[in-house]
Specification:
Radius of gyration: 28 Å
Largest sheet: 5 strands, mixed
Strand order of the largest sheet: 3-4-7-6-5
Structural class: alpha+beta
Order of helices and strands: HEEHEEHEEEEHEEE
Strand content: 25-35%
Shape: elongated
Helix content: 10-25%
Number of helices: 4
Number of strands: 11
Length: 249
Amino acid sequence: MLQRVFGRVGRISSALVGASRTLSYTKVSAISSDHFSVVATESPPLDNPKRVKMEELGSFIASALPKYVQFTQVAGNDELEVFIAPSGVIPVLTFLRDNTLCQFKNVCDICGVDFPTRENRFEVVYNLLSISLNQRVRVRTYTDELTPIDSCVPVFSGANWYEREVWDMFGVYFVGHPDLRRILTDYGFEGHPLRKDFPLSGFIEVRYCEDVKRVIAEPLELQQEFRKFDFQSPWELLPSGGTEIEKNV
């Protein structure tokens, strides 16, 4: 009898501990910054060693580079994010590549994000991979329409085309890039398509011209003026007797 009672009490206590860990894991708190707005989770559960390991790595990186690293966090799926100042692109990426505890020797992607309401509207995100340690890190920095960022091609030669894509789509200029020109849009294209203020219709259109036997670019001409369509079914305006219902204007 006593064994049954103690066994039941043990199962209840284990369930309560697990529930408390789950609650502390899912509760979130907002982090405010002058250039970033992120949401970070609180202390992870003790039975998630991967997340604990990534938090320790983030603390190590922040302590090693306090001049450039503003803060770190472990986002969803236990992914480490390092938020840095624009001046720290080269030293931070070099440290992440060469340090024996990091060894992030592969750059998987470089992309841009546009936040028009911010003073520094663009974020540049570097996704790095450590094959030897099987870890990933996301480095995020910021800039505006006029301030350039140092090119990381001297650190990662594979970043050449990635930075060309960010320049083409967002207009972020990279200082020291060996060949910074458009990569996705056509020659002579004006504007940067992934900016939030870029019109969906664009400014120019391309077509094949029979006179010159080639594809030409010319200013965009819409075939009709803007029209507002009423998608209400016309059958709803007629009752069973066939008399038209007066429509309230």
